[in-house]
Amino acid sequence: MALEELETEWVQVDDQLQFRWHRPPLETVQRQAEDPATVRIFLNGCFDLMHVGHFNALRQAKRLFYQLGFQKVVMVAGIHSDAAICQQKGPPMMSDEERIAVLAATKWVDELVTQLPYTKMSVKMADRLRVRYICHGDDMPICKGGEGMYSEAVAQKRFQVLKRTEGISTTQIIERIIRQQGWSKAEEVLSSALCTTQRLAQFAAPDGREAKQLSDSNRVVYVPGIFDLVHPGHVAVLSEAARQGDFLLVGLYSDETVRQHRGVAPILSLLERALAVLSLRWVDDVILGAPWSISPELLTSMNISAVVLGRAPGDPSTQDEERYRGARERGLLSEFESSFAISSAALKERLVSRSAELVQRNSKLLEKELNYISQKEYVPEGDARATAFGAVGGVAAPAVLPAEPPALLAHSASTEPEMLTQEEIGAAMLQAPTALIAAHLTLRDAVISAETALREVPLSGDTVAA
Questions:
Q1: Do 168 and 53 form a contact (C-beta atoms < 8 A)?
Q2: What's phi and psi for 262, nearest 5 deg?
Q3: Could you give the angle at which helices 434-456 and 197-204 cross, rounded to 10 degrees?
Q4: How far is CA 351 from the centre of its chain?
Q5: Which one-letter DSSP state was computed for residue 106?
Q6: Among 31, 136, 288, 315, which residue's beta carbon has the most beta carbons within 10 A?
Q7: Has residue 448 got a pLDDT over 50?
């Protein structure tokens, strides 16, 4: 989805709630709303310094409704305006344009609502957008005046709670930068988001299309980098690189490699950066801990046909650096200058320039977050069997589950076992979690070793040469 491909409509729900809706033609929206096998859902946020917690909320919401049996889930993502965020929390780190660019590049987003006020997300708004459910994490926001943002949706059973991703938030990212500058000694809760092989597989899976295989691709494009604090510059270079081939492979440097060559570690861990990059709609796969220098072996092993570098306007070119010599000598190297004058370093400089304000503001937000963490209860992630949530805004809220769509009922009633072809089994194996594949290979190696040892043990009566 590109914003320029969508129609834009100014919507006024009431005096407090007005916004821009970026959508396909209304006929398409109406067909989706009337289709019992399709569900339209809404999720809003500030999406400042967009990170794996934001991405995971969008992914998790779509996955949950697919688990319920819907054949199509349409995500309408709402993003609050700079003015609204300033009034509620203080100025965001990234501008409207910058935050919208990253959100629009997210593969789980189908439509956008921009210029959204920080006010109650009403059922009337949901009806206007033709969405059946409003979604949010289990850290329920309160608007100025003390009203719960989703109280009405909860009361009307039009709300779905999501598991908040542990270990990461915009507040915690800012706290990491403050710590890196030596400005804070506050207690650390979780140093990074918890990443399992299942979560990596979930983020790597494409949304709405079949997974591409590198071995089936005609032209693999490779983009190496740190990709710390995803921003519109990253989005622009990855979008451009994807146009140059049919498989986009991103090489992510390890935390230690970055520390060794840049003198300081990234703000986000390697796995947090990987999950963020995998959330962008053009990326097909990533190399975790990519080599700093592009060697002929890397180019050959991954069948790379093009290497694309990105830089912000005015930044010096890096094409002549020794680490790119292997790609340069083969004529594979090109450089793309983003139209966004932003980089991860520039983002960090913005924070540093507002250090006094941020330290004071973030200490209050971090205290609130620590309080939330200390009181939170277990919430299943994307589990259609357990989606109940507690009282919100004084309303005791029951579990919110859509009626089972006909497709799910038909599937449940079927007694015929589903037969898979060899191709489907092979594709499933390729998408299996890394841990399972590793366990299989370990077991295979153990069996081979045991068989070899047995063959070498002499039977009774055999003679052994001295």
A1: yes
A2: -110, -10
A3: 120
A4: 23
A5: B
A6: 136
A7: no
CA distances from 240 to 205, 211, 222, 280 (A): 21, 20, 12, 13
- Closest by CA to 165, choosing from 190, 130, 129, 131, is 190
Q: Which two tokens stand for residue 159?
A: 């709300």
Name the class of domain 3-192+359-406: alpha beta
**3-state secondary structure (DSSP) of residue 104:** helix
Task: Report, in this order, helix, strand and coil percent for the chain, each rounded to 5.
Answer: 40, 15, 40
Domain ranges of the chain: 3-192+359-406, 197-347, 422-453
Report pLDDT digits (tens) over 269-322: 999 999 999 999 999 999 999 999 999 999 999 999 999 999 888 888 999 999
Going by pLDDT thresholds of 50, 70 and 90, the confidence category of residue 460 is very low
The 10s digit of each residue's pLDDT in 110-129 is 999 999 999 999 999 999 99
Cα separation, 192 vs 202, in Å, equals 18
Q: How far apart are CA 61 and CA 59, in angstroms?
A: 6
CB 176 within 8 A of CB 357: no
The third-level CATH classification (topology) of the domain covering 197-347 is Rossmann fold (3.40.50)
Q: What's the chain's average pLDDT?
A: 80
45, containing H or E segment: strand 38-45
